[in-house]
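Reading a protein record of the kind used here takes only a little practice. These numbers are not coordinates but entries in a learned vocabulary of local backbone shapes. Here is one such record, which you should read through line by line.
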Amino acid sequence: MKLQRKNRRVLALGALAVSGALALTACGSDDTSNGGDASASAPAAGSVDCGDASGQLQASGSSAQKNAIDAWVKQFTAACKSVQLNYNPTGSGAGVTAFLQGQTAFAGSDSALKPEEITESKKICSGGQAIDLPMVGGPIAVGFNVPGVDSLVLDASTLAKIFDSKITNWNDKAIAALNPDAKLPDLKIQPFHRSDESGTTDNFTKYLIAASPNDWKYEGGKSWQAKGGQSASGSSGLAQQVSQTSGSIGYFELSYAKDIKTVDVKTEAAEPVKASTENASKAIAAAKVVGTGKDMALELDYTPSAAGAYPITLVTYEIVCDKGNKAETLPATKSFLNYIASEDGQGLLAEAGYAPLPTEIATKVRETISGLS
């Protein structure tokens, strides 16, 4: 143990330029008074502190954050060579299930835990319960593959009708009205949705429910409920289908849309809004911390009216026990989570197409992580 501490490796990544940082506010949280204490009680915000971390760390869940996790794991394991971290992007629903069955040290989810899931977690979190720690923010892009169309504007009503198979052709008058200068082909629309339980689906449908309730009559959730369309597993699966299928449209995180054209979304603002990290941050600026105690679940704004505010957004949470974590994985869990919540860890996100946490949220997250037991 002493030798491990003596050989503690600290990886200084340096200051990274971060564009489009989220301006999340903690209005709505009744636990903001501890922000000043966090920097003193939590490990340094800009380093990998391996501590006593060692062994294998199993985690699974959100495919939305996979590209971020990959970047983090590369840096973390370069510093903490005695830790092997395996993250399986099975989707938010499967990740939460695996965590609640005690199969993983933590889970990634694009939706906060439901009350019944928190209750169930008390069976595996001895003396405690599972909590939501926001870690990654960003836009859900709506990608499309329409021959001859490089730019496309859609609104919530049109998107709802497309994904509910009510609008079935690309030259439909509703699409044409939003795109008067586009040469829309007489081509069948091929809408793709997630086949697995997904927090991305949950957030995408929350947007449709909030922004166009008359056109989207489903209750929402991680499972796709509308009829018709085609399905694929994971964000990468959806992106692949859209990339290779003429006439297709689908939803996935911006980091998966590098070679795919994305929809500009018409909101109440004067101009349609592009899917970008910066524009997503403007919409998420109105988010509120609604979790109680150590839980930091956020309430997002899916109908922003500010200019340039992209409305289809999500926040990915790392789900972990506040108390009762397994002794053999606790050091590695705390070390990794502290790193990804650090300035350096968050600094890697913008380049990967994600939005980093604002300082006040990240500080509270690190404070919570330091108290995990």
Notes: The radius of gyration is 21 Å. The domain at 140-280 is CATH 3.40.190.10 (D-Maltodextrin-Binding Protein; domain 2).
